[in-house]
Design a protein that fits this description.
This is Membrane protein. Helix content is 70%, strand content 0%. With 139 residues, it is mostly helical. Helix 2 (25-32) packs across helix 4 and helix 5 crosses helix 6.
Length: 139
């Protein structure tokens, strides 16, 4: 049942990316180009996502388990440290340069475009490098 719900959630997320245009790198880049061909429509998508998340997280904080009985694992960190700010900056730079973030990039793998595959490969290399760096620092 958990795997089915995860699959269903992934499908709904992918459909939302398609309908909102978040999977189209040109639309994303136009949203980021505030002094050029700015497309503000993704701001509405983000505002809608934030509105839903506020209610969902408020509800989730009151619960010990999920609807499927799994323990709630909500983030507890509140500090704005160097790791968070560096990660956010790298995410933003990658998003601004490529027009992709991880979810839409994985969704766009099915298009077969080389630049999408290159982005995902670079993303995976970055994730492995960060994991190795973090592991090195922990020892």
């Amino acid at each position: 049942m958990i795997a089915f719900v995860a699959l269903l959630a992934g499908l709904v997320f992918g459909l939302g990316l398609i309908l909102s245009g978040m999977g189209n790198p040109a639309k994303v880049l136009n949203f980021l180009d505030v002094f050029g061909t700015w497309d503000p429509s993704l701001a509405l998508v983000m505002a809608g996502a934030i509105a839903v998340a506020i209610f969902a997280f408020t509800w989730a904080k009151r619960r010990k388990t999920s609807l499927l009985g799994e323990p709630m694992q909500l983030p507890t960190a509140t500090a704005l440290d160097g790791k968070l700010l560096t990660g956010a900056a790298l995410f933003g730079i990658g998003w601004g340069l490529a027009g992709f973030c991880p979810g839409p990039a994985l969704m766009n793998l099915s298009t077969g475009h080389g630049e999408v595959w290159l982005f995902v490969a670079a993303m995976l290399v970055g994730m492995l490098a960060q994991h190795a760096w973090a592991k090195r620092g922990a020892s």
